Amino acid sequence: MSPFLKVVFFFYSRLSSMIEDNFFKKKNHTKLLKNGFYKDKLKSKLNYNNLVEKKIFTNNFFEKLIIDKKYIKLIIDNIFLENNIKNKLYEITGFYYSVDFFLAYSTYHVDENNLTEDIYANHWHKDKPFSKNTLKIIIPIEEILDDQGPMEILSIEESNKINFFSDPKIDDSISRHKLTGTNDDIYYFLSNVCYHRAGIPSLEKKRTQIMFQLNPSKESKYSVNLYKKQYLLEPKFPLFNFKDAYNLIK
Questions:
Q1: Are 136 and 99 in contact, with CB atoms under 8 Å apart?
Q2: Residues 6+ away with beta carbon under 8 Å from 191
Q3: Separation in Å, CA 212 to CA 91, 95, 153
Q4: How many helices (H) and strands (E) does the chain have?
Q5: Where are the beta strands (DSSP E) in the chain?
Q6: Which of 60, 65, 97, 176 has the smallest CB count inside 10 Å?
Q7: What is the distance between the alpha carbons of residues 70 and 72, in angstroms, rounded to a whole number?
Q8: Could you give the CA distance from residue 72 to residue 249 in angstroms, rounded to a whole number?
Q9: Average of pLDDT values for 94-120?
């Protein structure tokens, strides 16, 4: 990444975070700020494999599982209402959120010849073109064990030791948290604050999960374009996403 882009991302993150803290934040929170990630259990869970309309390989190692349009509201209602995640997020963050993107996908083993490439966010990084309040939610679609390449996350404390403008050099001695679990587990993490990466599944293994991108909002809502966005790259600079239309989560 060029030094110019790093500067742009740095100032965008600072500006958008300040705007959100002053105009969207309802109360102070502490749970997520302890580590930058939080694990919980779902009381009501879905079988996402039954909701898939089609599967698309974007490269040899990454497969999108396109959720049928008619099931999107079912997913939103299940997670945020039936499992009370809407209220729980408010309690642990002090924000209401808009669901701006989601994607179900599988990642596969990457051979040694391709390990230096950024295949599916498999290098340590922060989500720089977001605010410090941007939240990612991860739910395993199938059980994720250690040999299936779970996501790895550094705590806020460890992440703060790394210069924002440098390329992170993170060796095996640095403690990290792995997002292993079953389909009744749910993880929240601050993707602009915590360094993270996708693990590499072992040979003949895969990791299958669903990811949601949430951004602070005046009220809980979700984009009406979630179905179409599955075919696109994850949107950046959410504060400037003026063209999107939303439905309320209620």
A1: no
A2: 126, 127, 130, 134, 135, 136
A3: 18, 16, 16
A4: 6, 12
A5: 37-41, 52-59, 62-67, 96-108, 135-140, 152-153, 177-178, 185-190, 196-197, 206-217, 221-223, 246-248
A6: 60
A7: 6
A8: 12
A9: 95
Q: How many domains does the chain have?
A: 1
Is 90 exceeded by the pLDDT of residue 105? yes
pLDDT in tens, 155-174: 999 999 998 888 888 988 89
Q: What are phi and psi of 21, to 5 degrees?
A: -65, -35
Q: Is there a contact between 36 and 193 (Cβ–Cβ < 8 Å)?
A: yes
Give the integer Cα–Cα distance in Å for 120 and 60: 11
138 to each of 9, 72, 163, 166, how far by Cα in Å?
24, 16, 26, 27
3-state secondary structure of 13: helix
**Per-residue pLDDT tens over the stretch 33-55:** 789 999 999 999 999 999 999 99
- Is pLDDT at 180 greater than 80 in this prediction? yes
What's the pLDDT tens digit per position in 84-96? 999 999 999 999 9
CATH number of the domain encompassing residue 213: 2.60.120
DSSP secondary structure letter of residue 224? T
- pTM of structure: 0.95
Q: Which domain holds residue 18?
A: 3-248
